[in-house]
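Fresh eyes needed here. I'd like your take on this protein's tokenised backbone:
***
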Amino acid sequence: MAQARIARGRGRPPAGEGIDGDALLEAALCAFARKGFDGFSTRELSRQLGVSHALLNARFGSKQDLWFAAMSHALVDLERDLRQIATAPATDDLEALRQGIVRHVTFAATHPEIQRVMSHEGALDSDRIRFMVDRFVAPLKALVERKLHVLAEVGRIQPVPYTTLHYLITHGGGGLFASAVEARLLGGKTPAGAEEIQQHAEQVADIIINGLTAKPTAAHS
């Protein structure tokens, strides 16, 4: 049976021709963040974008493959930046840690969908959450843990598990952007604009770094 085509205006290319791949993946990411994996519909996305469902399947295969592609598309620049910060030979380890926190939080401001997707996925074991950990989290975790170990060994910070730091940054510093409605109901204001976002990220980094470098109390000792 011939593939049905979506009605189009004069001069518009046939559904799927000349589609902007970046726009498609960004729209998919927003849909996954809003509805979760199970609630997401590739047919609905194809109608929204004005492309054929067959083209979407031909380009990405399964819905899960589209999920992998959308998440990877959003995270590849962050991964590159964090790796460059962590491996820069001239950067002090504590300063590198601070720069990494700032970069992570500014990324969360421009990509709140990532945290919303992870809130769906993080509670359940699946190929998707394992992909995220294996592809993005674990390699960077190894770099950060080495810095945490060195800094703790020479007494510059208190020992801290990587997972504690990870969730302070992602759900703490970045959570404000993913939960903008809740923040507003609490009387807060989600930072908007590059300057406000940078100020928020710097404040989050200062709080975390100051906490790590503070001398432990007698009770903690």
Summary: Confidence is low (pLDDT under 50) at residues 1-17. The domain at 21-60 is CATH 1.10.10.60 (Arc Repressor Mutant, subunit A).
